[in-house]
């Protein structure tokens, strides 16, 4: 199993779904993990349950708060080796029903929040000339989806944040990659309804939904030394949905 003993990792949006599975996977590999969520009480509770070092409240759209927290984690634990920018939102809307507020929320959180996190992490990691960052894109961002124009646009941007940041930060020995999950069994996909879920399963080569733990294992690999020559990639974890 991947060994992350002695590594310090930060996972945003780590209180549920893929984020929580990632926290558990990194803890299992021996990393010291700090997770964040919007609800401080829940973040602390989840941290205690998962064996994480701390659970902190964070709004990733607040650049100053993100910068302060990232610097605080590095100072508290003596390093910051891995950051997983998982925090994000999903709101479906047909093209004619997309409001300015929806677009604003989606871009501020999924795009702005990811940039804030990558920026803050890069500032800390560049001092040590070492680090790995993984951002959460989506297969929807790579291929589009009816009823998810705004969400798809935001996740396409996230994939390109990874590509662009990788080109910029490689000289500092900082790797940046993205994962693009397909339909995964989480709270964010439970709203789709049985009919849509059945259609997605039918379209997936492996004929099932993915599990958060399957995405988390890929993230764990990408932040480890086993992926030491991998950067700027958007890894589809979709069971063959795009085939």
Looking at this protein, list some descriptive labels:
7-stranded parallel sheet; 243 residues; Rossmann fold
Description of the structure:
- By secondary structure, the chain is of the alpha/beta class.
- It has a single domain, classed as NAD(P)-binding Rossmann-like Domain (Rossmann fold, 3-Layer(aba) Sandwich), CATH 3.40.50.720.
- The chain contains 8 helices and 7 strands; from the N terminus they run E-H-E-H-E-H-E-H-E-H-H-E-H-H-E.
- A 7-stranded parallel β-sheet has the order 3-2-1-4-5-6-7, with helices on both faces.
- Helix 1 packs across helix 8, helix 3 runs parallel beside helix 4 and helix 4 packs parallel to helix 6.
- The radius of gyration is 17 Å and the shape is globular.
- The chain starts with 7 loop residues before the first strand and ends in a 6-residue tail after the last strand.
- The mean pLDDT is 95.
Mean pLDDT: 95
Span between termini: 30 Å
Fourth-level CATH superfamily: NAD(P)-binding Rossmann-like Domain
Low-confidence spans: none
CATH topology value: Rossmann fold
Query: Helix proportion of residues, in percent?
Result: 40-55%
Please report the number of helical segments.
Answer: 8
CATH class division: Alpha Beta
Please provide the ordered H/E string of secondary-structure elements: EHEHEHEHEHHEHHE
Q: For the largest beta sheet, what order do the strands appear in spatially?
A: 3-2-1-4-5-6-7
Question: Which structural class matches the secondary elements?
Answer: alpha/beta
Number of domains: 1
Radius of gyration: 17 Å
Number of strands: 7
Secondary-structure arrangement, i.e. CATH architecture: 3-Layer(aba) Sandwich
